[in-house]
Amino acid sequence: MALAVAASWGSMLAHNLYSLPLAPIDMENSGPLIVAAGLLAAYWLRPNSRPVKVAILGWALLNLVVGGIITVLPLPFLPFEPEQSVNHYLAHVVYSLGQVPLTALTLAALRREVAIGNGAQGQPRHQ
User: Fold this and answer.
1) pLDDT (tens digit, 9 = 90+) per residue, 102-114?
2) pTM for this model (two decimals)
3) What dihedral angle (degrees, nearest 10) is formed by the CA atoms of 37, 38, 43, 45?
4) Count of domains for the chain
5) Does any domain span residue 93?
6) pLDDT tens digit string along 15-25?
7) Which letter does DSSP use for residue 126 in this model?
8) How many CB atoms lie within 10 A of CB 98?
9) Does residue 7 belong to any structural domain of this protein?
10) Domain range holding 7?
């Protein structure tokens, strides 16, 4: 889980350092690091907690969908106009790909939890 969280934050940081005039200690970078570290700490303290896993999944999906996909598109509701270049799109590909391990790992953990629960109740597992 720690490596997946690191990949998630690292890909966001890579995007921000490449595409935006931000330092690593700027709030746009350090804020998400604090959130990611808090979620990881919660997972270490309560690895079997479904709410913690759901929160981690929500964080990963937020970064994937909003950070990796939506904010590269020239949408009228965004408070900025994203650069429309191949390099910027590639930065968002890196950002998005960095969210995949955390999303997949957390989904797998949640599915195992459901499968174990279903198995304990004698219900068939869905795949």
Assistant:
1) 999 999 999 998 8
2) 0.86
3) 110
4) 1
5) yes
6) 999 988 889 89
7) P
8) 25
9) yes
10) 2-117
